[in-house]
Amino acid sequence: MESRVVQVLASCALLLGCGHAWDLRSVGIDQFRVRHVSLYHSRAFVTIESANVSLVETGWPENVNNQRSWVLSDELDRRWTCSCRGLRNVLGTDVDRLARLWILSGPERHCRPKLTIRSLLSPTTGEIEHRFRRPESELRFHTIMVDPVPASDGDTRAFLTLLDQDYLLIYSLFKRSMGKLQFERTDLTPLHPISLSELTINHNRLYVADTVSDRLFALPIRSLRQLAFPHDGVQKIVMQANVTYLGRLLGRPRALTLDFHDQLLYILPRDGAIVKWTPGRSLKAENHRVIYQQSTNLTQIILGVAGNAWAVSAEYVSNETRRHCVKITV
């Protein structure tokens, strides 16, 4: 009799765990992998890899009861089958300080990559769209991150990273134009092979990582915020700034994240671990601390309010919990 009670309790616990995960079956999505998550209060904008959808809105935290979900991308909308309107092949998102959702879309069939900006507070105000030029369309875009601090002229700017390139792109919302942050040695010798595809930014720091050689660089973020984009009719301006090489990370990094004390967290996919490093120290292993280690599918680190943090996994963190997010202590 006692063994039956134990079995019933165990079954109930498992069912509760299943019911509290992101369940997208209500919008026709059964199997998916999480690529990226952006948050706005209790709203989660989840970029996913699935058969026919790349962006959904659902609830946050993941374990909230009675979640409602919406498909935001337009892969299933037949109205846009022969046009490049709507959202397809979403690569990532970010939410700026004025509650605008920035959406980076990759190429899709004959459609070029584009950047779409929508207001979360006033959805009826329309959206801003930037389509990349033909040479840029052949590039492999990776991530987007909006500077949380406005530029000196009040502009809102976003950094875009690419795979296998020695520069970053920076988009000016005020000017509706794109700039390039080119990395060069002082002797002008090439930096290749290089892939400046990982980036993190907060109020005080901007770090960029090379995912080919695991090098970490610091950029002068205050100087970049003083940079004025060209006036109308001016094709190009050039500004030189020193980029500081800090050393090599412990392995190929993913999801660089600055915590509330300007300490750097990043994922080591090879080890399924999240590690933490304090700026000012060397990047040796003894100056790192392992924050979390469990999953080989870790894709992101989310910082919430009151010092809360979560590790995000592309697949379930464990089959027992059937959740993509696990709370961690940083």
What is the fold's blueprint, element by element?
Blueprint: H1 2-19, E1 33-40, E2 43-49, E3 55-59, E4 70-71, E5 90-95, E6 100-105, E7 114-119, E8 127-131, H2 134-137, E9 141-146, E10 157-162, E11 167-172, E12 177-182, E13 198-201, E14 206-209, E15 215-218, H3 221-226, E16 244-248, E17 254-258, E18 264-268, E19 273-277, E20 288-293, E21 298-303, E22 309-313, E23 325-328
Q: What summary fits the major beta sheet?
A: 4 strands, antiparallel
Name of the CATH homologous superfamily of the largest domain: TolB, C-terminal domain
In total, the number of domains comes to 2
CATH architecture type of the largest domain:
6 Propeller
Shape: globular
Distance between the termini: 44 Å
Which structural class best describes the helix and strand composition? mainly beta
**Structure summary, number of beta strands:** 23
Low-pLDDT ranges = 1-20
Subcellular location: Secreted
Family: Belongs to the major royal jelly protein family.
Keywords: Secreted, Signal
InterPro entries: 6-blade_b-propeller_TolB-like, MRJP/yellow-related
Could you please describe the fold and organization of this structure?
InterPro entries: 6-blade_b-propeller_TolB-like, MRJP/yellow-related. Belongs to the major royal jelly protein family. It holds the Pfam family MRJP. Keywords: Secreted, Signal. It is found in: Secreted. The structure is a single chain. The protein has 330 residues and is mainly beta. The chain has two domains: 25-253, TolB, C-terminal domain (Neuraminidase, 6 Propeller), CATH 2.120.10.30; 254-329. 8% of the residues lie in helices and 37% in strands. It has three helices and 23 strands. Strands 1-2-3-4 form a four-stranded antiparallel sheet, with no helix packed on it. A four-stranded antiparallel sheet has the order 5-6-7-8, with no helix packed on it. The protein has a four-stranded antiparallel sheet with strand order 9-10-11-12, with no helix packed on it. Strand 6 and strand 7 (114-119) form a beta hairpin. Residues 1-20 have low confidence and may be disordered.
